[in-house]
Fold C2H2-type domain-containing protein.
Amino acid sequence: MEIIKSFKCEICEKSFSRMQPLSVHMRLHIGEKPYKCKVCGKLFSHASSLSVHMRIHTGDKPYKCETCGKGFTRTSDLSRHTRIHTGDKPYKCDTCGKSFSVRSNVARHARIHTGKKPFRCEICGKFFTENSSLSMHLKIHTGDQEYICELCGKLFSVNSKLLEHLKKHTGEKPCKCEICGKTYRYKSTLIYHARIHTGGNPYKCGICGKLFCHSSLLSTHMRMHTRNKPFKCEICGEFFSQNSNLFTHLRFHSGDKSYKCEKCGKLFSQNTSLNRHLMIHTGDKPYKCEICGKVFGQRNHLTRHKRIHTSFSHTHVNNVVN
């Protein structure tokens, strides 16, 4: 027998079979919260929500995982947890088809495709895709840096940044490409690299059509068209389109050269400059001319070399025409 839902919310149009559930539902819209926690004073719109909340204070976790025995205060938390054991990922991204075990992760992931950054720093105006990223960013303004590197004394606002930094001292590169075997310090760098093999560049510039493997790279690229340079050096007043370029620039003022070559001891202000320098010692020449096969240690040397072929081609054409 079909249940008739004749009571309808005029705000969101949700329907109910009885008036009482509709009255309870209306509290969500009007903000009414008549149920108060006697321990911490927090207010709730439903008695059931207060009951679940009270378990935080009592430590009661009545819902147990049958696989590992872990306890939870809510059935929804238990259901989400069991997907770790089953591998079930029922929530799918409509754009790329990627699956997730938690619904909220789909919404967070979708911002990669839309480029939406709803969390804004009230101090500098920078936007973020996640609230946790904004919280970490705010520590830059507050100066809260509680994590210290015991090797060089450098301070960090987040423990994860300290752990990433330590890999520079140890030389550890735990992230390995399964296709070509190349190793990286960070998983994010490996993900970027992997798209070289897969050809995954899903982000397209609407102006020039250039493709990018990450939405942040597209956002940075767009500043070339808009000529937007939001990052300002407070010392000399020069503006930059990327925050990383500003940090690199600041080292010229401070004289900071924190990247050291372990072979000869030479210091550099940029990690990229150190990596380029290391090719002198290793003899590595990763840039190859597709026309003649000659290899180079630096990309700009390859670019300069290609002009030989371009110049020869133009001269040859002119000779033929004449």
The longest helix spans residues 299-321. The longest strand covers residues 7-8.
